[in-house]
Specification:
Helix 1 runs antiparallel to helix 5 (about 75-100) and helix 1 packs parallel to helix 6. The protein is mainly α. It has helices spanning about 5-20, 30-40, 45-55, 60-70, 75-100, 105-115, 120-125, 130-150.
């Protein structure tokens, strides 16, 4: 595949993955764990940071980003869930890049396609929880590992 057609394929897969994640964000109400997130984010940032160690096993970075996001938008289903949908959508090109760095363009396209349509990744990208951010950071870690291998592991 030529670089231009590969780029178009990655853009199309990312767009399709985004459509799958954003299309039904308003179809269901918050469930229990999401309500915990909303209740936590409905406070000042200092209170959020103080409460996380007592109530959550999720890393702080999600709550800091979600608190800022919720401050700009709303804490409702359609206000808070797009943060996860964006993280899930961004995982598609990161998975492509990791596949390219570790194996080949073809492997990168396969990884991007799998991430774009994986039912679990789509589901978790529609929840007001840290799961989609975890997937994005995990894919980024695999990409960083591949780049370090390519450089010979030297700093």
């Amino acid at each position: 595949m030529r670089p231009r057609s590969t780029l178009l394929a990655v853009v199309a897969l990312t767009g399709f993955g985004g459509v799958l994640r954003f299309a039904t964000l308003d179809r269901q109400s918050f469930w229990l764990d999401e309500l915990v997130t909303v209740a936590l984010l409905d406070r000042g940032l200092g209170d959020v940071l103080a409460e996380i160690p007592r109530t959550e096993a999720t890393p702080v970075v999600f709550y800091v980003v979600a608190w800022a996001w919720g401050s700009l938008l709303r804490l409702g289903e359609v206000g808070l869930r797009p943060l996860s949908a964006l993280a899930g959508t961004a995982t598609v090109p990161v998975a492509y890049a990791a596949g390219v760095v570790l194996v080949s363009r073809r492997a990168g396209l396969a990884a991007a396609a799998l991430v774009a349509v994986n039912p679990f990744l789509v589901w978790y990208s529609q929840e007001a929880r840290a799961y989609a951010l975890l997937a994005l950071l995990g894919a980024g870690s695999v990409l960083a590992f591949g780049l370090a291998l390519r450089r010979g592991g030297t700093a």
